[in-house]
Amino acid sequence: MTKKEIKKLVNEAIQAKRFSQAKYSNFKVGAALLTKSGEVYSGCNVESSSYSLTICAERVALVKALSEGEVEFEALAISAKRGEFCPPCGACRQLLYDYAPNLDIILSDGSTEKIYKLHELLPVAFSNELLEK
Q: Which positions are annotated as active-site residues?
């Protein structure tokens, strides 16, 4: 990805954060998922008073894309608090890995980006290959 494409995806994540429903933690997160076809699906975190029912921005974006028939993904940008990088939680890492183990994960602190491959963030991951044995 070019720097311009990265910045565009990060801006989509920042915009998605505006819709965050974080009334319990006030920790707003936005995510933007780029598909191989060039479409971008955004998501924000949606909290529940029963914390275990909360869904993260990354999973919202992924589920939106999958529910529209997208199955190939290139990159996911994540934006949270300005001045901090916010990596995906363990549950998000696992679900993302199930659908895109080579996904680029772009973390933004509002002025700088860090880019990782998803498999770097979830080494020795559980995968469908283990289920097929």
A: 58
> What pTM does this model have?
0.94
End-to-end CA distance of the chain: 36
Superfamily of domain 3-131: Cytidine Deaminase, domain 2 (3.40.140.10)
- At residue 129, the pLDDT reads 83
Residue 113 bridge partners (DSSP): 108
Half-sphere exposure of 29 (CA within 13 A, CB side): 25
What would the pLDDT profile of 47-68 be if each residue is shown by its tens digit? 999 999 999 999 999 999 999 9
CA separation (Å) from 14 to 84, 103, 110? 13, 19, 8
